[in-house]
Fold each of these.
Amino acid sequence: MKYGDITFTSGGTECHAWHFTGEGDALASEAGRPVVVMAHGLAGTKDSGLQPFAEALAAAGLDVLAFDYRGFGLSGGTPRQTVSLADQVDDYRAAMTAAARLPGVDPQRLVLWGVSLAGGHVLAAGAHRDDVAAVVSVTPLVDGMAAGRHALQHHKPSAMARSTALGIASKVGKTRMMPVVARPGELGALTLEGCLESYLAIAGPSWRNEIDAAVGLELGNHRPGKQAKHLRAPLLVQIADFDRSAPPQAAAKAAFAGRAQVRHYPCDHFDVYAGAEWHDAVVRHQVQFLTRVLTPS
């Protein structure tokens, strides 16, 4: 499926996005088609596994705007490869404004879609808004403290201490980089068995395997799950029950607060992407959910 390249501005910086035009009028109202705003998780870029999701949703009749955060992928901005959670939520809001202006879409029927870290961002970006018609949160990271405790169950304390020390050094002095994904025992943000291979399997040409080491400190106070109760739109939360990267218990708690439809999958964090066993089911449930809540009455 073809897509168009567009740009929009967030925080004075030009962000790059792909626009997929929805097929058919099954979900169209008199005002136009619903439009999905989509972004990736930790250090992810839109060319790293998002296109199959976007194409499936466009085939179901939704426009899709998939974008890169400031400092990542094809978007502008400095510093590069540094995660600011507040800035990324602001990027979502700017992308929502851009999506509402696309030709043929209904600006009052925005759909927020996020995976992993972005699965939490969509809860914050969609809270208290009447122009958001649905929210899809996939294997979401919704509680930084819970994620830290979860990581301690799967990592050696020495590895956690090493990355934390580098993060503190990056925060108080010159920026220090580390790999996003690495092998067990190596320095990196994600070093569980299989993470390196899983991430490289979806990585696109704009993705870089490096991230500001201060990301762990940034995540410490991250609690977007608390915003779920402020959503005014139907919410779908898709939980990987054996998720070693984003604690499934925290996702379930946020889902309950947001009165969500919940789908569970007996898999790990990366098993929702194209080529993995559970991708087709995850996409099918998204299409079913969005068709149900967005079909004009």
Amino acid sequence: MSDGTGPSEWVFIRGLVRESAHWDEFPQTFARAVPGARVRAIDLPGNGRHWRLDSPLSIRGMMEFARAELGTEAGVPRYLLALSLGAMVALEWIARHPQDIAGAVLINTSLSSLSPLHRRLSWRAWPEVVGALLTTDIADRERAILRLTSRFAADDPSRVQARVDAYREHPIRRANVFRQLWAAARYRPPADAPAIPVLLLGSRGDRLVSPECSEAIARYWGLPLNMHPAAGHDLPLDDPAWTIEAVLAWLATLCEGRSAVCPAESRRET
């Protein structure tokens, strides 16, 4: 197992009907802050550059697609950083192919086996979710999604415009929204705890998914959990510096008692 030292590949996986462009500048910021890190932001079937494909009706299908696209040999330790539905894909990858992965950071995710529906998708958010799905105005829809997932970005015209531009290049097929919702609703990971190091990150200000969902996963598997006191569902957007510091601190724990220099000890400016 890797201890987080030296060169590494970090695979970033977004959530429900979101694409790699929605990371904004976070991959570049992360790569500068974590020495040796090479970031690959991927798109799941039905999203981003794969928008023409039908989304699989299972999390396993999404995972196997991503694994085949990336290849099983990274040449360096491979880590996953995944948000929401993307974190379910990461958990499935860890469960099925633990030899591929050195560690994973899972952000604001939930599991149907541990949390009820009203926590996995807050009942207060349902009217806004439905409204966002039904609107035909791209800017209004992306602004509504940002209101649900971020504490501030909906008021930033450049963030909204970036998502409008992404949608025009890679439109979201409505059928894929429901296919991904179906896959997420049905997903149940194995009962055994992940066989590799996993860090959970959550947000107290998440209006979309209750922070209690991350807490439930942490309790069930005995995993470390860091909770941001105020950020929304899209934690890397709302507080990228805090997110990176949490990852660096976790990597440092993987290096305790080892002689190698760890990324957390040789960090660069973020």
Amino acid sequence: MAASSNHSFDIVSEVNEVELHNAIQQARHEVAVRYDFKGTKAGIEYDKKNRCLTLTADHQGQLEAVVMVLKEKMLKRGVDHRALKRGKIEEASHDTVREVVTFHRGIEADDARKIVKEIKAMGLKVQAQIMDEKVRVTGKKIDDLQAVIAHLRKNGPEYPLQFENFT
């Protein structure tokens, strides 16, 4: 490669939909058959169209147990549980509690601006630009780009980031 060519990568936040679906199915199955959930209202409903889950349980402690099952299954399928965006816990009918959980997709505008600002503050010879729900980083030195990735892995937002299209 010529010394003057630029290298780049995209910073994105996405979830592997297939593995997420498999993790949800496994979590639903475990909640359905586990002894400590027998005879309770504990459950997971998956609304694929709206990309959200409705978790139900008899009480908040049990709801947390359902969330733990879900996170465990996501981990086993290689899906980062930080992609979960938990909603507020609400009282539901028949003395149960309910929580709607969504999934993080794309880098939010405020976070994209913070990422670009952080990259500039590093003082490396790289450019970062916001493109819809991702940030593209370009630079001449691969080492500089790798330094950006390492920095964002430690100091990025609460949700998972992926680094792709490395050229």
